[in-house]
Amino acid sequence: MEEKIYGLLGRKLGHSYSVNVHRKLGNDAYRLYEIEIDRLEEFIRNENAGGLNITMPYKVEAMKFCDVISPEAEEIGAVNTVVRKNGRVYGFNTDKYGFIYMLEKGGIDVFEKKVIVLGSGGASKTACYCVKMLGAKEVTVISRSGSDNYGNISKHFDAEIIINTTPVGMFPENGISPIELDYFTSCAGVADVIYNPLRTKLLLDAERLGIKNSGGLSMLTAQAKKAAEYFFDTEYPDSITEEITNGIMRECENIVIIGMPGSGKSVIGKALAKITGRELFDTDTEIEKNTGKSIPRIFSEDGEEKFREAESETIAFLGKQSGKIIVTGGGAVTVEKNCESLKQNGRIYEIVRDISLLARDGRPLSQGADLDEMYAERRPRYEKLRDVSIINDRTPEDAAEEIRRDFYENPRY
Fold first, then answer.
1. 46 and 133: one domain?
2. Which domain covers residue 28, as residue numbers?
3. pLDDT digit string (tens) for 262-293?
4. Catalytic residue among 12, 24, 59, 64, which?
5. Are 91 and 73 in contact (CB under 8 A)?
6. Is 96 one of the annotated active-site residues of the chain?
7. pLDDT of 313-369, one tens digit each?
8. Please, are residues 385 and 258 in contact by the beta-carbon 8 Å criterion?
9. 316 and 334: one domain?
10. Does 264 map to a domain?
11. How many CA atoms lie within 13 A of 35 on its CB side?
12. How many domains does the chain have?
């Protein structure tokens, strides 16, 4: 008998962390299957299929190929989990459990609130079902072509809860949002089912505005736990959801190091890479590789503006990565879009060193500059962006160990 097939079916899966999650649940056979719709039935009805998850854009279409559909999935109108038992295909919706868990983790209460759901696919159906079940006062779906759409969304600027179920802002198209959140002045909660990046532009906007928010990683792990219970007809302790979520966060979140020029960022980053085994990227080094010029030469020949453009391009690329160490130039924080690029997947550490001890060699803006004045200007940006400050008054190895310990002991979720 052939080995049972377990995995995720979808059209584009380069963003997915599902294999990692299911392996933490003990399923080493779990795989990603990128398929077109004409192969959906073939996979779902394969006699060797053990358990499959379904993702966009097939959650509604998958229902056609199930022999039995759970009452919840039937009512929701979407299936994201199928199990083959005794020659029959059973369809379930475990997204419901994940979605509710995501709201709980973010402290987002929809009871008696006006909710808008961005998107009209399978994930939208689940979101609408859940918020209605939780007592939302009003639920409106915003789609591209429906009666409530992005062209007339202004009539819903009084929405109190916003839920994104579209792929807008998902890797690799990071840094964009389906809406301008600033217009929603009554908004009290934002949830985004996207989990790569860990913090979408929509979530970063919510954080900037002081709005409660929650991302899709917690939803992913909670629904995966429930799916695995269906796959293997077993139960896992509820605590495993948070355990796996924290584990994935530690593995996927970048460690980002910021601070004044000459504060020791690069040498601390190298020490940190050595003790963690993580790949290290220094933005200045990457800029030199990409341009074929040293940083002082770029400044002298092209000027600071061209350098900042190259820096922003480099940071936009590196910010999309997962599980890396990223060391930035001292002035990177002066450009707002750089801060968003770094924060979407990163925990940010500022290296703080006595101004009189800052190195100046090879740093064009530090030559002859008043570093006290420079720091006074940049300090609010460093403090706003950072999660943790690290005082560099010891060996690089000691500073790196403090970062390592904080990072692994304080997961974001």
1. no
2. 5-92+223-240
3. 899 999 999 999 999 999 999 999 999 999 99
4. 59
5. yes
6. no
7. 999 999 999 999 999 999 999 999 999 999 999 999 999 999 888 777 766 666 667
8. yes
9. yes
10. yes
11. 19
12. 3
